Amino acid sequence: MNYDDVYELHLQLLYIYEKKQRYSGPYQRQIDYYKKQLFIFAEDKVQRIFVLNQLLKIHEKTREVLVNSCADRYFSRNISVDAESGI
Known about the structure:
about 90 residues
């Protein structure tokens, strides 16, 4: 895998994250900062990959909260179902 492939993969992932979720939360300032870095200051593929990676990490942080919340609800539901069934 070369830098062009990695760059395209990062762009695809970022596109999917941004298509699925609209931001106005606590990470918006960081997202705006790194997007400015990406389009104005990053000069070569390696720098752009680094900036894209930072953007992806921010998106993954926001999804982590959602995943944990879903997992908590799922496991608390299983505990209450088990308690009701006498297990």
